[in-house]
Every structure is written in C-alpha cells, then in structure tokens.
Write a structure and sequence with these properties.
Rossmann fold, alpha/beta, globular, 7-stranded mixed β-sheet
C-alpha cells in the first residue's frame, strides 16, 4: 500500500466529514482575492478549534490574528449565540475583509474585531475586565511568548491556550541564525515547559498546510 499524499488525504477528510461549508470556503477565497497570504488554518484545524471550544465549554474566546476570519468563524460558531469572540488584527484591510466574511457567516452578533497591534490592544482588554476561557494564538511568531503571557493574565485556571504553527517544517529543531520565526517558536517552547502555571502538549501535523502543528496548554 502506498502512502497517500497529504493534501489529497486532507481533501478526503474534508469531503467525507463535511468540514468546510460555503461560508468558510467563501472566507478563504475572499482572503485570496484580497491578496492575503494563504496562512489561515486548514479546514481540519478549524474544525479541531471548534471542537476544543465545545469540549472545554468555552463561551469567551480570544483570537490573536484574524486574517480573513476563517478561524474566527469556526470559533464563533462553537461558542454559540450566547458566547463571544474577541479577535485582534493588526492590518485594518484584513479586518475589513474579515468583517464581511463574518457577516456572510451570520456570526457578527458574537464577534468583536479590534484593529491594531495586539500588544497595544491587549492591555485594554485587561482594563475592561475581560476574562477568556480559550485563547487561540496565530499571529507574528516573534511575539508568541508575550501573547502567551497575556493569555495567562486574561485567563483563569482551566483556560485553554492553542498556539498555531509550531513545527515550521522541522526548523524549530535547530533554527538557523537568521530564522527568527523558528527561533522564536523554539524559545516559546522553553517558556511553555518552564512555566509553573502551564501544562502543555505539542502536536505535529501534516496536511494541507505542510509539516507543522500546534501546541495546546491549560492554565493551572
């Protein structure tokens, strides 16, 4: 038996599990049409995010990195009509595309998109008293450690933290001196392993997004 090709196998999963509906597909296509990089989560990872929300019982979710709103839609659907998602996006043009995608998906009633540098907008969430049950981090890797620290600050015991893009095609194992992203992810893992309030697992994946993966931590 030959080993199936990763992308084809993901396409099979998407089809037989009915993973990507018209609204999600339209969000992905709108991002491409706007010239955004194709770095949104895969359909299967988006589904996993929604399942993590439901399994954990999360009703308040923080997302760092909106892009075109693909993962935002998955998170918003999972929290349900009585939950909330706050999504932070650096680029105003991206936020505008995401807003249209959220409207198309019918979840604008439960999503707040905040534009600006996340390290500038996160303190405002603390000042207004936001507490999050789940935090999804999918933004610039160089600031992952700071984002995780904020996730702990804005969380509680039991808050779930999910960090995307943790393998970087294996470069995290021995980052080159000029590979800032891989080096930042490697440093993040040292922080995760040493932090007294985090219990963490790292999962490598292959598929539509190549060789990558995610980390899942629980705040204790």
């Amino acid at each position: 038996m030959t080993v199936p090709e990763w992308v084809s196998l993901d396409e099979l999963f998407n089809r037989v599990l009915h993973t990507e509906d018209a609204a999600l597909r339209a969000a992905r296509e709108a991002g491409a049409a706007a010239g955004m990089p194709a770095i949104e989560v895969s359909p299967q990872h988006a589904k996993l995010l929604s399942l993590l929300v439901r399994i954990s019982g999360a009703v308040t979710v923080l997302e760092i990195g909106t892009l075109a709103g693909y993962s935002t839609i998955a998170l918003a659907r999972a929290v349900g009509p009585h939950g909330t998602v706050v999504s932070l996006e650096y680029e105003s043009a991206h936020a505008q595309v995401a807003q249209r995608n959220l409207e198309r998906a019918g979840v604008t009633d439960r999503v707040e998109v905040i534009v600006g540098s996340a390290l500038d907008t996160l303190p405002a969430l603390q000042r207004r008293g936001d507490v999050f049950d789940l935090v999804f981090i999918d933004a610039d890797k160089e600031n992952n450690i700071a984002y995780i620290q904020w996730a702990i600050t804005l969380g509680r015991p039991g808050t779930v933290i999910v960090v995307d893009n943790i393998a970087r095609n294996g470069r995290v194992l021995d980052p080159a001196p000029d590979d800032r992203q891989a080096a930042a992810v490697r440093a993040m893992f040292d922080m995760l392993g040493a932090h007294p309030r985090l219990d963490t697992a790292a999962i490598q994946t292959v598929g539509t997004k190549g060789w990558d993966g995610f980390a899942v931590a629980v705040v204790t």
